[in-house]
TrEMBL record:
VOC domain location: 4-130
Pfam families, sorted: Glyoxalase
Annotated coiled-coil segments of the chain: none
Domain of life of the organism encoding this protein: Eukaryota
Gene3D superfamilies documented for this protein: 2,3-Dihydroxybiphenyl 1,2-Dioxygenase, domain 1 (3.10.180.10)
Protein's UniProt name: VOC domain-containing protein
Organism phylogeny: Eukaryota, Viridiplantae, Streptophyta, Embryophyta, Tracheophyta
Length: 137
């Protein structure tokens, strides 16, 4: 049996701010924020979206320091993708909640509608429709 993907951890400047932003902009419910504000989680189904400070002393010595983009055009080496039934409405909500618009939703050749925004830390968020599996003959 394959292991389940349990967490995706996003390294951010301010955990509480990022948790509140993701809850408002992308429609998630906050599961918890610890008292130290060094860890926060959102309810997102089987996989938890978690947030922790960019400079986390507990892991810096073990796994290395998180690298920040060198310019506003550089992007972190991660993209967070959310699936929605109504991508246009989700995109509008995200932008109205403070996400930076990157690319309005458009139909792609593979049959998915996709739009892009950046979160308050500059992380690229892909907002796409669900993709149907091809029919078997």
């Amino acid at each position: 049996m394959n292991p389940a993907l349990a967490y995706v951890v996003v390294y951010v400047k301010d955990v509480a701010k990022s948790v509140a932003f993701y809850a408002k902009a992308f429609g998630y419910t906050v599961r918890r924020i610890d008292e130290s504000h060094r860890w926060g989680e959102l309810e997102s189904g089987q996989t938890t979206i978690a947030f922790t400070p960019r400079h986390q002393r507990e892991t810096d010595d073990l796994t290395g320091v998180v690298q920040n983009p060198k310019s506003g055009y550089d992007r972190p080496p991660v993209e967070v993708c959310f699936a929605y039934r109504d991508v246009d409405a989700a995109y509008k909500r995200a932008v109205e909640s403070g996400a930076e618009p990157v690319s309005k939703p458009e139909e792609k050749e593979w049959g998915q509608k996709v739009g892009y925004v950046r979160d308050i830390d500059g992380i690229v968020i892909r907002m796409g429709s669900y993709v149907q599996a091809p029919k078997q003959d």
